[in-house]
Amino acid sequence: MITEQLLDISLGKLGAMMTSITELEKLIAEYSGNGVEFGTASSDLSPTDERVAETENKIGCKLPPSYLWFVKNYGGGHVYGEEIFAIYPVLSDLSVGDIAYQTKSEREQGFVRDSAVVVCSNDFGETFYFDTSTQDDDGEYPVFVKAGANEKRYADSFAGFLYKRIENPEG
Questions:
Q1: What are the residues whose beta carbons fall under 8 Å from the beta carbon of 146, sequence distance 6 or more?
Q2: Comparing C-alpha atoms, which of 55, 118, 57 is closest to residue 88?
Q3: What is the pLDDT of residue 161?
Q4: Residue 21: how many CA atoms within 13 Å on its side-chain side?
Q5: Nearest-angstrom CA–CA distance, 76 and 60
Q6: What is the pLDDT of residue 171?
Q7: pTM, two decimal places
């Protein structure tokens, strides 16, 4: 199962304090209800394998393991009011929080390049995205943040992005 395979995956260069999905789970539990609002594995937003495959087909790439762990275990949710784009049960014009919907929209408007998969945006004009042109040995993509014409690497993986947004949302 995906969750069991991910427990040993390194989350990238997050420093000595952060080395595993288990530590991310602890951080999520610590902040749950206090800025972090996620669903559960049994929620309606937890995607089926068919929806994952459909989403990957629509965005043109495989989703990274730590993102799949997140949507399978939490369905989706918000970190300090910022929606982390999920895989909705049905994709439609009303699915504005769906990762495929957001990615397609941002690409069509020319806000991100074709190798970008949008995972979050906020009221400060920042867009966070996977750069699928670069993949590590674990199948993870780095996450970049874009604000206007400025772009910079934010984290080495989705799990690293999530950890950083929870622990230090301004950093």
A1: 111, 112, 126, 127, 128, 129
A2: 55
A3: 95
A4: 16
A5: 21
A6: 65
A7: 0.86
Question: CA 158 to CA 160: how far, in whole Å?
Answer: 5
Q: What is the pLDDT of residue 5?
A: 43
**Taking Cα atoms as reference points, which of 38, 41, 10 lies closest to residue 23?**
10
Those residues of the chain that have pLDDT short of 70 are: 1-19, 91-94, 171
- What gap in Å lies between CA 98 and CA 100, rounded to an integer? 6
- Please write down the HEC assignment for all residues of the chain: CHHHHHCCCCCCCCCCCCCCHHHHHHHHHHHECCCEEECCCCCCCCCCHHHHHHHHHHHCCCCCHHHHHHHHHHCCEEECCEEECECCCCCCCCCCCEHHHHHHHHHHCCCCCCCEEEEEECCCCEEEEEECCCCCCCCCCCEEEEECCEEEEEECCHHHHHHHHHHCCCC
pLDDT digit string, tens, across residues 29-73:
999 999 999 988 777 778 999 999 999 999 999 999 999 999 999
| Tokens representing residue 10 in the block | 């390194």
CA distance 144 to 151: 7
